[in-house]
Design a protein that fits this description.
CATH architecture: 3-Layer(aba) Sandwich
Radius of gyration: 19 Å
Largest sheet: 6 strands, mixed
Distance between the termini: 31 Å
Strand content: 15-25%
Shape: globular
Order of helices and strands: EEEHEEHEHHHEHEHEEHH
Strand order of the largest sheet: 6-7-8-3-9-10
CATH superfamily: P-loop containing nucleotide triphosphate hydrolases
Number of helices: 9
CATH topology: Rossmann fold
């Protein structure tokens, strides 16, 4: 489903602040894979997602999504293939619009627009059923403004919006990092449920090693713009946090790039 081939991305090129964010990055994902990505700050995790979505254009290499070369497509051209949930719950929704209006925007993202009434009763029932899956009582508050929701509720709605039209690739950029532990756990459970039910090909960035181990079908570690470790299957199931700490210590020459890597 996804092939990243020898991708290079740098910032502030030609200045004393030049930074190589991605260095000869190679990454392959099969249809239906759920990959968790860990690494310290500056490892290139979010840059990789931004190159996939078209926020950044690489200086070299190729990116293929479901066999199509999307390397130099504009961000809006590839948006119909991708779903993304950001770390900040405020980024994925329109605060001044109702819950059902936000869902309608997401649902119609790949559809042709017409002159019919805004949201049909059939659509409303579909949104109501979808919201009921969240188990947050939002199916009874569909006309409420999204800006009135808590961070956890808003992130759950964002996740639902990102998956209403099954994307070819779902990108989760530390989507529970800004939530309290209890709410984060609920959103993670919902994440797993939606991904398994819809058989979604997914990349989830996280600083939480326990989450990286227990979620997904494969775990990869990034360091200095490269993938330095990849594990799947039984080996992944048997991983312990101590194993990842040891591996990270090896690839970073004993220096932890960020204390947040130690979040358990």
């Amino acid at each position: 489903m996804l092939d990243i081939v020898q991708v290079e991305k740098s910032f502030n090129i030609g200045t004393v602040n030049e930074k190589k964010a991605l260095q000869n990055l190679n990454f392959h994902m099969n249809d239906g894979e759920f990959v968790t990505v860990i690494g310290g700050n500056g490892a290139g995790k979010s840059t990789m997602l931004n190159v996939i979505t078209g926020v950044y254009k690489p200086e070299g290499g190729k990116i293929f999504l479901d066999g199509q070369d999307i390397t130099y497509l504009e961000e809006w051209q590839r948006a119909k293939y991708l779903g993304r949930v950001f770390q900040d719950p405020m980024m994925g929704t329109a605060a001044n619009m109702q819950i059902e209006e936000n869902l309608a925007l997401a649902y119609r993202r790949t559809k042709k627009r017409g002159l019919s009434w805004g949201i049909s009763e059939k659509e409303k029932e579909y949104y109501r059923q979808s919201l009921a899956r969240l188990d947050l009582g939002l199916e009874d508050r569909m006309t409420a403004k999204v800006g009135l929701l808590s961070g956890g509720q808003r992130q759950a709605v964002t996740l639902l919006m990102a998956t209403l039209q099954k994307p070819k690739l779902l990108l989760l950029d530390e989507h529970t990092a800004a939530l309290d532990p209890k709410t984060a756990e609920k959103v993670l459970d919902l994440t797993r449920e939606l991904i398994e039910e819809e058989h979604l090909t997914t990349i989830m960035i996280t600083h939480n090693m326990r989450d990286a181990i227990r979620m997904g079908t494969r775990l990869v570690m990034m360091h200095q713009g490269r993938i330095v470790y990849s594990v799947a299957g039984e080996e992944k199931k048997n991983l312990k946090v101590e194993d990842l700490l040891q591996k990270f210590s090896e690839v970073s020459n004993g220096e932890f790039a960020n204390d947040r890597m130690l979040l358990l």
